[in-house]
Amino acid sequence: MAEVNTVARPYTKAAFEYAMDKGNLDQWSATLTLAAAAAEDENVVRVLGNPALTDAQKADLMIGLCEEADEAGKNFLRLLAENKRLAILPEINTQFAKLKADQEKSLDIEVTTAFELQDEQQEKLAQALKTKLGREVILSSQVDKSILGGAVIRTDDLVIDGSVRARLAKLAEAMNS
């Protein structure tokens, strides 16, 4: 069976191109986020897995859960239902969000530190990352005392590990080799 991301890609591309042409990326993003959340809900998964329901009934269920969807969004959900692809909505949403972020030249970055960052520190870090990466940065932070100090910065396929824990691990590796 094909990978979920491979199956989702053409649907994502079509939805993204349509949303770009119509100038409503935000509305499509909101619709797909809601539809993806619904498609992951265990009660919805159970209902969608019911073989007694027709594709049209499954589509109507999803459309009912995504009330703010425009007519094109509703048609998109109908198409997914007809092709038995409602289960890949979370992957479509993830891919759509990445395409949208690329289009808007923005990047979601997660920073993990041993201690809470002050607002001024977050702003300086966001500005430095914006300069380095050439994109708008949306920063979210979390605290993990196990890293001891420093910071771990993550976004998609980029990880910058400047934690004390990582440095100690490198030092231990160097001493053991």
Automatic annotation (TrEMBL):
One of its GO terms (molecular function) is proton-transporting ATP synthase activity, rotational mechanism. It is a peripheral membrane protein. Pfam families: OSCP. GO terms for cellular component: plasma membrane; proton-transporting ATP synthase complex. This protein is part of the stalk that links CF(0) to CF(1). It either transmits conformational changes from CF(0) to CF(1) or is implicated in proton conduction. F(1)F(0) ATP synthase produces ATP from ADP in the presence of a proton or sodium gradient. F-type ATPases consist of two structural domains, F(1) containing the extramembraneous catalytic core and F(0) containing the membrane proton channel, linked together by a central stalk and a peripheral stalk. During catalysis, ATP synthesis in the catalytic domain of F(1) is coupled via a rotary mechanism of the central stalk subunits to proton translocation. Belongs to the ATPase delta chain family. This is ATP synthase subunit delta.
